[in-house]
Protein backbone atom coordinates (compact mmCIF):
# COMPACT_ATOMS: atom_id res chain seq x y z
CA UNK A 1 0.00 0.00 0.00
CA UNK A 2 1.17 3.47 -0.85
CA UNK A 3 0.64 6.35 1.57
CA UNK A 4 0.29 9.94 0.46
CA UNK A 5 2.61 12.23 2.45
CA UNK A 6 1.70 15.88 3.02
CA UNK A 7 3.96 18.35 4.79
CA UNK A 8 1.68 20.73 6.69
CA UNK A 9 3.03 24.05 7.98
CA UNK A 10 1.91 25.23 11.41
CA UNK A 11 0.63 28.76 11.74
CA UNK A 12 0.83 30.91 14.83
CA UNK A 13 -2.95 31.47 14.54
CA UNK A 14 -3.51 27.69 14.88
CA UNK A 15 -2.65 27.88 18.59
CA UNK A 16 -5.21 28.19 21.34
CA UNK A 17 -4.95 29.80 24.78
CA UNK A 18 -3.20 26.67 26.11
CA UNK A 19 -0.31 26.98 23.64
CA UNK A 20 -1.06 24.02 21.40
CA UNK A 21 -2.84 23.49 18.10
CA UNK A 22 -6.57 23.85 18.68
CA UNK A 23 -8.57 20.68 18.15
CA UNK A 24 -10.74 22.27 15.43
CA UNK A 25 -7.64 23.28 13.44
CA UNK A 26 -6.78 19.61 12.90
CA UNK A 27 -9.89 19.33 10.70
CA UNK A 28 -8.36 22.01 8.45
CA UNK A 29 -5.02 20.11 8.40
CA UNK A 30 -6.85 16.94 7.32
CA UNK A 31 -8.66 18.92 4.63
CA UNK A 32 -5.39 20.32 3.27
CA UNK A 33 -3.89 16.84 3.04
CA UNK A 34 -7.06 15.38 1.48
CA UNK A 35 -7.29 18.14 -1.14
CA UNK A 36 -3.60 17.70 -1.96
CA UNK A 37 -4.22 13.98 -2.40
CA UNK A 38 -7.46 14.13 -4.39
CA UNK A 39 -6.83 17.09 -6.67
CA UNK A 40 -3.10 17.55 -7.13
CA UNK A 41 -2.53 13.82 -7.57
CA UNK A 42 -5.68 13.08 -9.58
CA UNK A 43 -4.87 10.71 -12.44
CA UNK A 44 -4.13 11.98 -15.95
CA UNK A 45 -3.43 15.41 -17.32
CA UNK A 46 -6.72 17.23 -17.78
CA UNK A 47 -8.60 14.39 -16.11
CA UNK A 48 -11.98 15.34 -14.63
CA UNK A 49 -11.41 12.91 -11.75
CA UNK A 50 -12.21 14.39 -8.36
CA UNK A 51 -12.70 17.84 -9.90
CA UNK A 52 -16.49 17.60 -10.03
CA UNK A 53 -16.75 18.03 -6.28
CA UNK A 54 -17.00 15.98 -3.16
CA UNK A 55 -18.52 16.36 0.29
CA UNK A 56 -17.47 15.11 3.68
CA UNK A 57 -20.06 12.77 5.16
CA UNK A 58 -18.21 11.94 8.39
CA UNK A 59 -15.08 12.68 10.40
CA UNK A 60 -13.65 10.64 13.28
CA UNK A 61 -10.68 12.08 15.15
CA UNK A 62 -8.62 10.67 18.00
CA UNK A 63 -6.38 13.26 19.62
CA UNK A 64 -3.35 11.33 20.86
CA UNK A 65 -1.11 14.15 22.19
CA UNK A 66 -0.87 17.95 22.00
CA UNK A 67 1.01 19.56 19.12
CA UNK A 68 2.75 22.83 19.97
CA UNK A 69 3.85 25.53 17.57
CA UNK A 70 7.22 25.21 15.89
CA UNK A 71 8.71 26.29 12.57
CA UNK A 72 8.99 22.76 11.15
CA UNK A 73 5.93 21.37 9.40
CA UNK A 74 4.10 18.32 10.70
CA UNK A 75 3.69 15.26 8.45
CA UNK A 76 0.27 13.98 7.50
CA UNK A 77 0.16 10.49 6.06
CA UNK A 78 -3.07 9.38 4.45
CA UNK A 79 -4.34 6.24 2.80
CA UNK A 80 -7.63 4.70 1.70
CA UNK A 81 -9.34 2.14 3.93
CA UNK A 82 -12.57 1.62 1.98
CA UNK A 83 -13.82 2.17 -1.56
CA UNK A 84 -17.55 1.89 -2.11
CA UNK A 85 -19.68 2.55 -5.17
CA UNK A 86 -20.36 6.14 -4.12
CA UNK A 87 -18.05 6.83 -1.17
CA UNK A 88 -14.54 6.28 0.10
CA UNK A 89 -12.91 6.36 3.52
CA UNK A 90 -9.55 8.01 4.05
CA UNK A 91 -7.42 7.39 7.15
CA UNK A 92 -4.78 9.79 8.44
CA UNK A 93 -1.97 10.13 10.93
CA UNK A 94 -0.70 13.57 11.86
CA UNK A 95 2.80 12.84 13.07
CA UNK A 96 6.51 13.34 13.41
CA UNK A 97 8.91 10.43 12.88
CA UNK A 98 8.84 9.55 16.59
CA UNK A 99 5.24 10.32 17.63
CA UNK A 100 1.64 10.56 16.47
CA UNK A 101 -0.52 13.55 17.41
CA UNK A 102 -3.80 12.63 15.71
CA UNK A 103 -5.37 9.57 14.08
CA UNK A 104 -8.45 10.28 12.01
CA UNK A 105 -10.70 9.10 9.21
CA UNK A 106 -13.05 10.82 6.79
CA UNK A 107 -15.87 9.43 4.67
CA UNK A 108 -15.91 11.33 1.37
CA UNK A 109 -18.80 11.25 -1.12
CA UNK A 110 -18.16 12.34 -4.72
CA UNK A 111 -20.72 15.01 -5.54
CA UNK A 112 -22.10 16.55 -8.72
CA UNK A 113 -22.12 20.22 -7.75
CA UNK A 114 -24.14 21.29 -10.77
CA UNK A 115 -26.96 18.80 -10.15
CA UNK A 116 -26.52 18.91 -6.34
CA UNK A 117 -26.55 15.12 -6.02
CA UNK A 118 -24.06 12.46 -4.95
CA UNK A 119 -22.42 10.52 -7.76
CA UNK A 120 -20.66 7.20 -8.16
CA UNK A 121 -16.89 6.80 -8.11
CA UNK A 122 -15.62 6.60 -11.69
CA UNK A 123 -13.44 3.74 -12.96
CA UNK A 124 -10.49 6.14 -13.27
CA UNK A 125 -10.94 7.37 -9.69
CA UNK A 126 -11.24 3.82 -8.40
CA UNK A 127 -8.05 2.82 -10.19
CA UNK A 128 -6.21 5.75 -8.60
CA UNK A 129 -7.63 5.02 -5.12
CA UNK A 130 -6.68 1.33 -5.30
CA UNK A 131 -2.99 2.34 -5.21
CA UNK A 132 -3.59 3.77 -1.72
CA UNK A 133 -5.92 1.04 -0.39
CA UNK A 134 -4.70 -0.48 2.86
CA UNK A 135 -3.62 -4.06 2.18
CA UNK A 136 -4.77 -5.12 5.65
CA UNK A 137 -8.32 -3.80 5.35
CA UNK A 138 -10.64 -6.77 5.04
CA UNK A 139 -13.73 -6.17 2.93
CA UNK A 140 -12.70 -2.62 2.05
CA UNK A 141 -13.63 -2.87 -1.59
CA UNK A 142 -17.35 -2.73 -2.23
CA UNK A 143 -18.92 -3.52 -5.59
UniProtKB/TrEMBL annotation:
Superkingdom of the organism of origin: Bacteria
Region forming the signal peptide: none
Pfam family, one: 4HBT_2
Molecular function as annotated in GO: fatty acyl-CoA hydrolase activity
Name used for this protein in its record: Acyl-CoA thioesterase
